[in-house]
Amino acid sequence: MTIQHTDAVRTSPLRSERVAAGLLLIAAIAGLVIANTAVGPALLAFMGDHLTIIALDFDISVSHIVSDGLLAVFFFIVAVELRRELVIGELNSLSKAALPAIAAIGGVLVPALVFISFTAGTDVVDGWPIPTATDIAFALGVLAIFGSALPTRVRVFLMALAVLDDLVAILIIAFFFTSDVRFASIGFAAIAITVFGALSRLLRARSPWVLARRAQWPIITVMIVLAALAWYFTYQSGVHATIAGVALGFVISRRPGGRAVHALEPWSNGVILPIFAFSAALVMIPDVSLSELSPAFWGILVALPVGKLIGITVGGLVGGLIFRRQSGALKLPDLVAVAALGGIGFTVSLLMNELAFRGNREVADEGVLAVLLGSAVAIAFSAVAVSLRARHYRRLRRAHSRQPEPGRSPSATA
């Protein structure tokens, strides 16, 4: 998820969607390869080591520092962008949100049903949220690499679809992966989040309390401390700690939020997401036959590339029939290309897999492999689909450029 910047501002290569997607892929491959070498067992044991602070009643594993701690920064960025789109962006009205919303619903329901069809009657059916997610960073990276010639409306539709998909993922994490709730900790987290949001108003350009840039640093420092406290109390409450990042992203004032994202985005793209992809892909490939693999493996493997493709395409077509005059509607080939990109689950799907199967390490490892393989199939298919559409639009532009201007003869244009 990236806030849009002009080329003059986009100075760091780590803000590039292509670079972000490449780093994610390299990190995941490295994690999978290293886990299956001689150092794999030692690295896996290290990821299971715990940091304990008795005075704070705080205990967390290295693996959860990555998935619960570092990934909260990524979800903060997601929430800021989501709020921006809802206020002033592509989702700021019902008419704008209608088409991608219906496509997003299809892209959640169909993969979930595909997964359930493979796992019905088993103890792994609770993993149905895993194939419902779309990795926006990876999807936009593939689009940037293979689809630079596509019209802006295709990218806008993909962005809106992915933003809504992220919203669904946030709700799933909040409601389906929360247990043993401690309401006192939730109350303390809510206080920290509320004060964090209030202080951010002091940093707005139009605020009567706006301070000189140097004088803002004490406020920013306090906000960072409050953000850490919000995360700590959320983690202690039993709610997944990444929800703290979401809440902070929603309450921060828009302009300070945009500046925060601009500062954090290179760290998220270049450090946080690759570290998470590396740690999530630290899986020893099981020495089992295909028939011995869990139904969850096959459910994810099919649901990500196929379920997403069918769900988003059908949802987009239904939305197009309902809102025929909506300017955001895509042609069927463009819709298929976007739907193929939606099958790239990766980051959020890996997180969902960890949450769904945290009590079953063997199935969780197979789930990681399925997410990686399913996303790889989606990447390959979407690269072909997007390239074909880009080639189509290049031909149209060349044909249009050869047409003579009105009132001029072909010989004059030649």
Automatic annotation (TrEMBL):
- So what does this thing catalyse? Na(+)(in) + 2 H(+)(out) = Na(+)(out) + 2 H(+)(in)
The portions of this protein that span the membrane are 21-48, 60-80, 101-122, 128-149, 156-177, 183-203, 215-233, 239-255, 267-285, 297-323, 335-356, 368-388
Recite the UniProt keywords alphabetically: Antiport, Cell membrane, Ion transport, Membrane, Sodium, Sodium transport, Transmembrane, Transmembrane helix, Transport
Q: Which InterPro entries match?
A: Na/H_antiporter_dom_sf (IPR023171), NhaA (IPR004670)
Q: Which domain of life is it from?
A: Bacteria
Topology of this chain in the membrane:
Multi-pass membrane protein
- KW Membrane (keyword) present: yes
Is this entry keyworded Hydrolase?
no
Please state where this protein is localized.
Cell inner membrane; Cell membrane
Similarity comment text for this entry: Belongs to the NhaA Na(+)/H(+) (TC 2.A.33) antiporter family.
Write out the function statement from the record.
Na(+)/H(+) antiporter that extrudes sodium in exchange for external protons.
Q: Output this protein's name.
A: Na(+)/H(+) antiporter NhaA
Organism this protein belongs to? Leifsonia stereocauli
> What gene codes for this chain?
nhaA
